[in-house]
Amino acid sequence: MDISEILRAVRDGGLTVEEAEGKIRYKPLEDLRFAMLDYHRELRAGFPEVIYGAGKSAEQVAAIAANMRKNGAERLLLTRATPELAAAVRAHYPGAAHCAEAGLVVVSGPPVPKNKGRILVVSGGTSDLPVCEEAAVTAETLGHKVTRLYDVGVSGIHRLLSRADALMSARVVVAVAGMEGALPSVIGGLCDCPVIAVPTSVGYGASFGGLSALLTMLNSCAPGISVVNIDNGFGAGYLAGMINGR
């Protein structure tokens, strides 16, 4: 039972004020020793606390999922997910979907109202697709319409320019690129909407695991560009959703 259900139950006479207070009092936080769960995250931020899977054991992920389910979380997102972690979530959310390319486990829950704007996720190359999919699936899970435009990097700029209509009709663009990382600057000079730049660790030795792309994006001369961390598709998709939802 979430907060809105509790309040409706009090209004309709199904719960006393004291009973409702008891249900609410112990909901916000739960200490599992290895994790501090925040059950009011959805109430404050619109989506339950996201589980970062890297470095967590299957047992830890299973315990987190079990407690989230017990406390009424109908939606769930696990990032950096392996098949083992996906199985741990499915033990408590049988309908969970494992998006292997994106490295995500998604529990969609009840239908989310679709926002009117559209998020465009653009990749420099095919090797950037795992990060792109992490961004795209995250935004979709938050209830946003997403269009994908892949392999349109600056080494063949005509591919990008041929889709100018898609660029100009987007409310937010997530531009994902490795190598020299020039794609967001080009898009920023073509679009009238915010651009979220995502550097990836794709590239040869002098790209320093994405550091070269990160520095290029941070030093972009095009206005209206924000930059997230290397390979952080989740952060880009979440931020794009927050912008589109305004």
Give the gist of this structure.
The chain is an alpha/beta fold and 246 residues long. Helices cover 39% and strands 18% of the residues. The protein has two domains: 25-107, no CATH class; 118-244, Rossmann fold.
Secondary structure elements and pairings:
Layout: H1 3-12, H2 17-25, E1 29-31, E2 36-38, H3 41-45, E3 51-52, H4 58-70, E4 76-79, H5 83-90, E5 97-99, E6 104-107, E7 118-123, H6 129-141, E8 145-149, H7 157-161, H8 164-169, E9 172-177, H9 183-188, E10 195-199, H10 211-218, E11 225-227, H11 233-244
Helix pairs in contact: 1-2, 4-5, 6-11
Tell me what you see in this structure:
The protein folds into two domains: 25-107, no CATH class; 118-244, Rossmann fold (3-Layer(aba) Sandwich), CATH 3.40.50. Helices cover 39% and strands 18% of the residues. It contains eleven helices and eleven strands. The relative contact order is 0.11. The model has no long low-confidence stretch (mean pLDDT 87).
What is the CATH topology assignment of the largest domain?
Answer: Rossmann fold
SS strand fraction? 15-25%
- Provide the succession of SSEs: HHEEHEHEHEEEHEHHEHEHEH
| Major sheet details | 5 strands, parallel
Structure classification: alpha/beta
Termini, distance in Å?
27 Å
From the alpha-carbon coordinates, what is the Rg to the nearest angstrom? 20 Å
Question: How are the strands of the biggest sheet laid out side by side?
Answer: 8-7-9-10-11
Overall domain count: 2
Contiguous uncertain segments of 5+ residues? none
Question: What does the average pLDDT come to?
Answer: 87
Q: Count of DSSP E strands?
A: 11
The global form is globular
State the name of the first-level CATH class of the largest domain: Alpha Beta
CATH architecture level-2 label of the largest domain:
3-Layer(aba) Sandwich
The helix tally amounts to 11
Helix content: 25-40%
